[in-house]
Amino acid sequence: MPDLLDPRVRLHVVTGKGGTGKTTVAGALALALARQGRRVLLCEVEGRQGLARLFDRAPLGFEPTPLLPVDGGELLGSAIDAKGALLEYLEVFYRLGRAGRTLERIGAVDFATTIAPGLRDVLLTGKVYDAVRTRQGDRRGDTPYLYDHVVLDAPPTGRIGNFLNVNAVGAGLARVGPINAQAESVMAVLRSETTAVHVVTLLEDMPVQETADAVAELRRLGLPMGRVVVNQVRPPLLDEALTARALARDGDGSGDGSGDGAWDLDALAADLTALGAGGDDPRARAAGLLVETREHALRVARERELRQEVDALGITVVELPQLDGGRHGLDDGGVHELAGALA
């Protein structure tokens, strides 16, 4: 797999369990690519307007609009919806501009795009495909592509396989004709070396499990894996010796730091008093501090185990730090910081 910012990868699909920061990672990746002097389209397909919030913009529409100025490059954003994709499809392929608007007024478009979830995904993936394949001036041949890269903030891991593979199902149902040809063309791009599917995770049990399940499904479907992005990585606050000591059981068997085994509670209370941090009950404060220390050590130990599970997937891992104050890239220029980390 090429480097994350390799110009040969033209479609980056970013997925992840809800809450892992996949929208933020998609935005940071698009910004990092634009900073390389490239024209990048960042789009979403879930109707959440997550990209608009990420870049502090007004709600995005179907047509691409600039997200923010980038020295040497260009970053545009789009909220792709099934209704807009269907109307565009009717206009481009059937020249039904006015008739299509009539269908919209009578509710036929909403009916078509909500009654059949499969059709909705066909339209959304078809529009992403068009964005990847369109050339400047809408010409064919050797003219440059309209966008150097398309970054898709895709549906979450629980739905990503069905979403990306919907055209393969459609091609199997319609074995001949224009529907089959379109579906085959879309799948050819999605399965090509110019596409990469990245999975965003946290070092927590459920996100790592969903990441493993998604990777297995994507591989089964023959879709090209990109990177596993471990988001919000927190450095340990204790060195190896202190971590091991915090995980040791106390002499009373409690493991909470209150016994006479791993820690000397009275000595710690005296140290806190000497530092002016003992409060009214230095021993109680010391006991509470030891409980928090053990909890931190347990979290670090579990995160290491989960990282080993991620590494066992056999995919290159990219780490992104947890930002100061626990920010996830949604304020104070956090997305800019994460873009720098990706680069």
Please write out the topology.
Blueprint: E1 11-16, H1 22-34, E2 39-44, H2 50-54, E3 65-70, E4 73-79, H3 82-94, H4 97-105, H5 108-115, H6 117-133, E5 149-153, H7 157-173, H8 178-190, E6 195-201, H9 205-220, E7 225-233, H10 240-247, H11 265-274, H12 282-311, E8 317-321, H13 334-342
Parallel strand pairs: 1-5, 1-6, 2-4, 2-5, 6-7, 7-8
Antiparallel strand pairs: 3-4
Helix pairs in contact: 1-13, 3-4, 3-6, 6-7, 6-8, 7-8, 7-9, 10-12, 11-12
Protein name: ArsA-related P-loop ATPase
Organism: Aquipuribacter hungaricus
Domain ArsA/GET3 Anion-transporting ATPase-like: 11-184
Tell me about this structure.
Residues 11-184 form the ArsA/GET3 Anion-transporting ATPase-like domain. InterPro entries: ArsA/GET3_ATPase-like, ATPase_ArsA/GET3, P-loop_NTPase. This is ArsA-related P-loop ATPase. It comes from Aquipuribacter hungaricus. It is a single chain. This protein has an eight-stranded mixed sheet with strand order 3-4-2-5-1-6-7-8, sandwiched between helices. Helix 9 (205-220) links the parallel strand 6 (195-201) and strand 7 (225-233). 49% of the residues lie in helices and 15% in strands. It has two domains: 11-233 and 322-342, P-loop containing nucleotide triphosphate hydrolases (Rossmann fold, 3-Layer(aba) Sandwich), CATH 3.40.50.300; 240-302, no CATH class. By secondary structure, the protein is of the alpha/beta class. It is built from 13 helices and eight strands. It has helices spanning 22-34, 50-54, 82-94, 97-105, 108-115, 117-133, 157-173, 178-190, 205-220, 240-247, 265-274, 282-311, 334-342; strands at 11-16, 39-44, 65-70, 73-79, 149-153, 195-201, 225-233, 317-321. Helix 7 (157-173) runs parallel beside helix 9 (205-220). Mean pLDDT is 84; it is low at 93-100, 102-109 and 255-260. The relative contact order is 0.15.
